[in-house]
Design a protein that fits this description.
This protein is mainly β. The chain has 2 helices and 8 strands, in the order E-E-H-E-E-E-H-E-E-E. The strands form 2 sheets. A 5-stranded antiparallel β-sheet has the order 1-8-3-6-5. It has a 3-stranded antiparallel β-sheet with strand order 2-7-4.
């Protein structure tokens, strides 16, 4: 048994004013009680397509690794407090300040997840078992994925992407 939700993260254009560009992607998943009582993991999978609108002119094409990803605003109905965010996704990517020439988002293994971490699919959250009888029908999991691009000189263009979350029984 699995529950799946997808959302497009729309336009995210790097700003030149020293402020990061931020998109919040909200998700609401209704977890059936049969899954909630066994505990589950939440896996995120993403795609990313960049389409330059003109030649680079000294800039670089934006890559999935230029986009920071963090979990924010997690709420869960039911009696469960056993919730663990996967290391690297438990930060605010808008608060990151990188040094010139270094990557703002070095990846989940370095504590700063980026969109490239999600492209092959990755567990981002685990929820432990909820006592039987504490949830009738469904348990609601609400969370927001925050995507951030820090100010930088990039080739003009547009990009699009989709993030899919899958809640499935913990292994």
């Amino acid at each position: 048994m699995a529950v799946t939700r997808s959302a497009s993260f729309g336009s995210l254009v790097p700003l030149g004013l020293g402020a990061p560009s931020i998109v919040a992607v909200p998700f609401r998943l209704s977890i059936p009680s049969a899954l909630a009582v066994r505990g589950y993991r939440l896996t995120a999978v993403s795609n990313f397509v960049f389409s330059p609108s003109r030649p680079a002119d000294g800039g670089k094409s934006i890559a999935a690794s230029d986009i920071g990803v963090g979990l924010a605003g997690i709420t869960l109905t039911g009696a469960n407090t056993d919730l663990a965010v996967t290391p690297g996704f438990d930060y605010d990517p808008a608060a990151v300040r990188g040094a010139n020439g270094s990557s703002h988002y070095a990846g989940a293994a370095a504590g700063r997840a980026n969109l490239a971490d999600l492209m092959p699919g990755r567990d981002i959250l685990r929820v432990g078992r909820i006592p039987a009888g504490s949830v009738r029908g469904t348990a609601d999991l609400n969370l927001t994925l925050k995507l951030v691009v820090q100010p930088q000189f990039l080739t003009p263009g547009g990009f699009s992407g989709m993030i899919t979350l899958v809640a499935a029984e913990s292994r």
